[in-house]
Amino acid sequence: MYKLNFVFSKKGAMIYIGHLDLMRLLTRAMRRADLPLKISEGFSPHPKLSLKRALKLGVESEHEEGTIILRLPVEEEEFKIRLQQQLPEGIKIKHVERNFS
Length: 101
Fold this sequence. Notes:
The protein has helices at residues 19-32, 76-84, and strands at 2-10, 49-51, 61-70, 91-99. With 101 residues, it is an alpha+beta fold. The N and C termini lie close together (11 Å).
């Protein structure tokens, strides 16, 4: 189990995307980037992704924080590049670091 913390910005037309839609957008982008996502067990499996706070609709942000758990190790820079290629304009991955806790 490998935990990565990432920081991203949400600007432009993306300010009109709600929290749940943003979670779906990030999950889909991570799947398209072919990242080895850790999937929860149970009736409704989903990637172990969490965002630190939910932004209100229409709010721009320079510093949003998220955490994703991966099955296999992926270098921070590789994660950033692969994910950014799958994200729409307005969402920018700014920083990625491994969480050792």
